[in-house]
Write a structure and sequence with these properties.
Pathway: Siderophore biosynthesis; mycobactin biosynthesis. With 181 residues, the chain is of the alpha+beta class. Helices cover 31% and strands 27% of the residues. A seven-stranded mixed beta sheet has the order 1-2-3-4-5-7-6, sandwiched between helices. Strand 2 and strand 3 form a beta hairpin.
């Protein structure tokens, strides 16, 4: 699967995002009760933030997933770990569907990671999913993330995990050659 990325437009994309983030499948996104205006406001704040960016992932030109990247020295993880130069934080969301495609979410996280590492300044990706989100832990491991420790964020207990450029490309190149990872 091939994906492209474009900046999210908080106003034009709000209705689509609202459907995605309020669906029961997106419980870990913590916006279940959000109104359309809440989603607009949240993503307008991100659009105005130099340390946080939201992108839509497109499949054949159609929005297929949401990706956020942030500077963990300034957002999300301030005071919870010691950021290193080249760290970037990441969130991603694949929307619920009535017609799931086998391997889609793994393809999405692989594309997200490849997109992040296109920036030569990015040396390591940092994630902090909810400790109970076992599905995303498995996906993270599949692309090379290594859990470091549990941390307490204001909104959740999270599993702080890291994936270096080398870990991702080693894992990705093995998978591309058909080696089980």
């Amino acid at each position: 699967m091939t994906f492209t990325f474009r900046p999210l437009d908080p106003l034009q994309d709000a209705e689509l995002l609202h459907a995605w983030v309020t669906h029961p499948k997106a419980a870990f996104w913590m916006m279940q009760d959000a109104k359309l205006e809440d989603v607009e406001r949240a993503y307008m704040e991100i659009a105005a933030d130099e340390h946080h960016h939201a992108l839509l992932g497109l499949r054949d030109g159609v929005p297929a997933f949401l990706m956020e990247k942030y500077d963990p020295a300034h957002r999300e993880l301030v005071g919870l770990y010691e950021p290193q130069p080249g760290d970037v934080g990441m969130h991603f969301l694949t929307p619920a569907t009535d017609t799931p495609v086998h391997g889609f979410t793994r393809s999405v996280i692989t594309a997200v990671m490849a997109h992040l590492f296109e920036d030569p300044a990015v040396q390591r990706v940092v994630v902090e999913p909810d400790v109970s989100n076992k599905a995303v832990h498995a996906l993270n491991e599949a692309v090379g993330f290594v859990p470091e420790r549990e941390i307490q964020k204001p909104e959740k207990k999270a599993l702080l995990s890291f994936c270096t450029r080398e870990q991702f490309f080693n894992r990705h190149s093995l998978a591309a050659r058909g080696v089980a990872v």
